[in-house]
Amino acid sequence: MPDDSLSDSQDRRLKRLFDRQGDADYELDLTELDLAHTIGSVDRMVERQRFRDVGRSVVLRIDPATPDSGETHFGTLGRHLLDLKRRGLIATLQPLDPAHGAGFNLTLPAGKEGSQILESDLAPDFDDDDPPV
To answer: What mean pLDDT comes out for the span 110-116?
Structure first.
């Protein structure tokens, strides 16, 4: 008789998929990335949104804090997302319910044809050696 049990990884992925309850159109999993790659991924997502004619909701997932994890990307990433929101590149922003993990719920506005998001509008360069602020 075949074993129908799931590995821990498969079980977490399925729970994440079903627990979303349709809250977002898109999920960007930034877990296990360093700060520079996390910010870069967010900036690429925002830049690509300018080509879309409809807005979309996004769940950004980051590594949760643990007793021995030290500082997470939550504060630095949150400040970057707030800056993008102030510039109109993100429509809505709120922290993810801790019961669903660490991260943010956000909505990206519809892109504007012919508009350009300049590289200077996005994140400053982060060195991997720079500690999160």
So the answer is: 59
Kindly list the domain boundaries of the chain, sorted by start residue: 8-111
pTM, full prediction: 0.66
Using DSSP, state whether 67 is helix, strand or coil.
coil
What are residue 5's DSSP bridge partners?
none
C-alpha closest to that of 89 among 60, 63, 121: 121
pLDDT of residue 97: 77
What is residue 110's DSSP assignment? P
- Surface-to-core class of residue 55, CB atoms within 10 Å of its CB (0-12 exposed, 13-18 middle, 19+ buried): middle
Please give the C-alpha separations between residue 26 and each of 23, 37, 41, 50, in angstroms, as whole numbers.
Answer: 9, 19, 14, 16
- Options 3.40.190.10, 3.40.50.1820, 3.90.1150.10, 3.30.1370.110; CATH for 8-111 is 3.30.1370.110
* Residue pair 25/54 in contact by the 8 Å Cβ criterion: no
